[in-house]
Structure to design on (229 residues):
C-alpha cells in the first residue's frame, strides 16, 4: 500500500475508497509493526499532496499522529515522517498540531539519543523546512526551548571530541548537518535567542562545526547572526 500511495492519484483516492478511517485506526493497533506501517503509509500519502493533506485533517489525523509521538522508537520515527509530510506548507495542519500539544511532544523527541538519532534528525529536518517559510507561528517553538535542545545535540561528546566519526557514521553526519541548518534558521530569525547561556555555548561550539559536510554558507549565516546578538 505504501508503494501504491506514492502515486498522487492513488493517495487522493484513499478518500473515495473510504480507506482513511481504517488506515488511521491502525495507529492504535496493539501490534507496534502495524502502527509503524500505518504511519509510514500516511506520511507517503500526504507528501506533496494538498488534497490528501486535507483528507487527513478532516479525520483529525494530525491529532492522532501527535498522540503517538510518545510511542516506542521504531513507531515514533515513522510518526515524525508522517508529521513532516503533512505539516509542510499546510497552516491548517499546523493549527491542529499545536492544538493537540504537538510542539511539547516534538520537543521531547530532541532530547536523548539512547535508541538512535533518527528522531532527532527528523525533527531538525522539519524545523529547517518549516522556518524557511514566511509568517509561520514561532511562539511555542521559543517557549519549548528548541534552540537549547539543538545546541545540546551539537555540544554532545560525539561531535565535540570524536569529529572523525562523522566520516564513518553516515546517520550522525546527516544529523549534524540538519541540526546546524535548524540552529542557523532559529538564530537568524531570533527564535529562542534570549537565553544568554545557550548563545554563549553556541558561540563556543561554532569553531568545532567547521566540517567539510556542512555548507559554508549556512555556517557563515550562523556566524553573522550570532555576532549581531
Amino acid at each position: 500500500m505504501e508503494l501504491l500511495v506514492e502515486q498522487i492519484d492513488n493517495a487522493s483516492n484513499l478518500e473515495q475508497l473510504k480507506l482513511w478511517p481504517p488506515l488511521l485506526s491502525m495507529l492504535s493497533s496493539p501490534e507496534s509493526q502495524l502502527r509503524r506501517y500505518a504511519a509510514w503509509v500516511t506520511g507517503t500519502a500526504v507528501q506533496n499532496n494538498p488534497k490528501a493533506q486535507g483528507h487527513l485533517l478532516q479525520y483529525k489525523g494530525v491529532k492522532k499522529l501527535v498522540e503517538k509521538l510518545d510511542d516506542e522508537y521504531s513507531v515514533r520515527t515513522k510518526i515524525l515522517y508522517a508529521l513532516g509530510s503533512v505539516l509542510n506548507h499546510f497552516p491548517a495542519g499546523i493549527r491542529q498540531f499545536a492544538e493537540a500539544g504537538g510542539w511539547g511532544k516534538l520537543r521531547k523527541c530532541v532530547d536523548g539519543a539512547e535508541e538512535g538519532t533518527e528522531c532527532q534528525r527528523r525533527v531538525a529536518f522539519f524545523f529547517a523546512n518549516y522556518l524557511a517559510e514566511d509568517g509561520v507561528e514561532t511562539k511555542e517553538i521559543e517557549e519549548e526551548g528548541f534552540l537549547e535542545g539543538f545546541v545540546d545535540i551539537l555540544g554532545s561528546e560525539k561531535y565535540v571530541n570524536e569529529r572523525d566519526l562523522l566520516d564513518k557514521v553516515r546517520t550522525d553526519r546527516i544529523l549534524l548537518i540538519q541540526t546546524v541548518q535548524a540552529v542557523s534558521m532559529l538564530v537568524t530569525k531570533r527564535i529562542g535567542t534570549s537565553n544568554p547561556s545557550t548563545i554563549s555555548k553556541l558561540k563556543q561550539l561554532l569553531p568545532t562545526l567547521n566540517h567539510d559536510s556542512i555548507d559554508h554558507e549556512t555556517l557563515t549565516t550562523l556566524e553573522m547572526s550570532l555576532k549581531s546578538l
Notes: Residues 184 and 196 are 16 Å apart (CA to CA). Residues 165-170 have pLDDT under 50 and may be disordered.
